[in-house]
Design brief:
Helix content: 25-40%
Low-confidence stretches: 26-40, 59-64, 199-214, 233-242
Largest sheet: 7 strands, mixed
Order of helices and strands: EHEEHEHEHEHEHEEEHEHEHEHHEEHE
Length: about 425
């Protein structure tokens, strides 16, 4: 499972700029929830063949130093508790501030790797000024400039070296699929799982999760066994004043990365909000199957068109990946709970299905012949063969004479045709065009 890196520090030292540089792509998952205390960003990154998740604890809190100190302490403690490696960003222009000193005091007490990153060092004079940060008592520091990217390579090399060695998970004789229940706080994740456990008599056992922040329930129903991963029923960590919003992000990152299917629970009374969308795209980026449950549907005033309109609104937010099952449920009244599990099982089957090469070519080549890729600069693209790759998630490769001329709209056209003829509901599809 991937490591988690938390970027901490006071506002305006360049944490978000460093975050954007690490993820290296505009379409990375970004959650900006406007609030009186904070904005949040999280996404995935890779360096030297190693993938990891990055969480920017964000700039937050307007007000007195006392209020600020309390909030930053809470965020840093959560980062310390959940992350594998911490990057502590400071600003060479302002030098050591009282808040930098307060954060460093917390970080000196932890056993996890802490990388002190001095930002805005873009010339030799500032390189000398950075020596001051030895006084924080965190040892070696790394200088960089988040805007230009100077020095980030050395920081990333040190980051990779700092990742803890993780033992290979002990696999069961028959490895069961993992369905993670994720979502923002108070959406009804605990109620959903408690309702299932309370009603279901096929529960076999409760197993301590292979990760330290999840609990697996071995579930046997419909003649199908799976592990239901509860990210809601996690013990509160000692000495942590829990910020539910931030904590839920940490839980979701770990649970999503270690699952096959993500059951995203949203609160019908609040709508499909920014954090719901971010958790969805986090699952999509990790190529997991997704089922969306609109919980608390019994509390919504509705008419004959409410379900259709609510679903259309969600699909609008999910574009272009709209082929996702959406169910309207109630954990309190147990409405459609078993249907939601049946749907999750179906998405799991969709995710692992294999399509015979002959069948795929017989179907797709006539479609491509009738609607070929648009000509570009007088060049005509011809696709002669296609196949599904032997990968854990659905990936297809199409062989063409000039694949470099095939653009994103045609790629989406091919994906839509695949979804029309094969059931990939709830599953992200990767499509590649290669030289014949």
């Amino acid at each position: 499972m991937n490591n988690i890196v938390a970027i901490v520090g006071r506002p305006n030292v360049g944490k978000s700029t460093l975050f954007n540089r690490l993820i290296q792509r505009r379409e990375a998952i970004v959650d900006s929830v406007s609030g009186v205390t904070r904005d949040r960003n999280y996404g995935k990154s890779e360096w030297n063949g190693k993938e990891f998740s990055v969480i920017d604890t964000g700039g937050y809190v307007r007000g007195s130093d006392d209020v600020f100190e309390g909030e930053i302490r809470k965020q840093v403690e959560l980062a310390i508790d959940e992350a594998d490696v911490i990057i502590f960003v400071v600003d060479v222009e302002e030098g050591i501030t009282p808040m930098d000193a307060a954060v460093s005091k917390l970080l000196r007490k932890v056993t996890k790797p802490v990388l002190l990153a001095v930002n805005k060092v873009d010339n030799a004079m500032r390189e000398k000024d950075a020596v001051e940060f030895y006084n924080l008592g965190l040892g070696e520091y790394f200088t960089f400039a988040s805007i230009s990217g100077s020095g980030t390579g050395d920081l990333l090399d040190a980051l990779i070296e700092a990742f803890p060695e993780k033992p290979e998970p002990v696999k069961e004789e028959v490895e069961l699929p993992r369905f993670a229940v994720v979502g923002r706080p108070n959406a009804g994740k605990s109620s959903f799982i408690n309702a299932l456990i309370g009603e279901d008599r096929y529960i076999v056992t409760d197993i301590a999760g292979t990760t330290r922040d999840s609990i697996d329930t071995k579930f046997d129903r419909f003649g199908f066994e799976f592990n239901l991963v509860d990210t809601a029923g996690i013990r509160r960590k000692a000495k942590v004043k829990e910020d539910l919003e931030f904590y839920s992000v940490m839980r979701s990152v770990r649970a999503i990365e270690h699952s096959d299917i993500c059951i995203l629970v949203i609160d019908a009374t609040r709508g499909f909000e920014g954090q719901d969308q971010s958790i969805f795209w986090l699952a999509e980026k990790n190529r997991k199957g997704v089922v969306i449950l609109v919980n608390k549907w019994d509390l919504v005033e509705k008419d004959t068109h409410s379900t259709r309109e609510y679903e259309a609104q969600i699909r609008q937010e999910l574009q272009p990946f709209t082929d996702v099952p959406i169910l309207f449920v109630s954990a309190m009244t147990k409405q459609r709970l078993l249907k939601s599990l049946e749907t999750a099982v179906q998405v799991f089957e969709n995710r692992k299905q294999r399509i015979a090469t002959s069948k795929l070519n017989d179907l797709m080549l006539p479609i491509i012949e009738n609607m070929p890729p648009p000509a570009l600069k007088g060049k005509y693209v011809k696709i002669k063969y296609c196949m599904q790759l032997p990968t854990p998630t659905p990936q297809f490769v199409f062989f063409a004479n000039m694949p470099q001329y095939i653009k994103e709209p045609y790629k989406r056209f091919i994906e839509n045709k695949l979804r029309e003829h094969f059931d990939f509901s709830g599953v992200p599809i990767d499509i590649y065009f290669r030289q014949k």
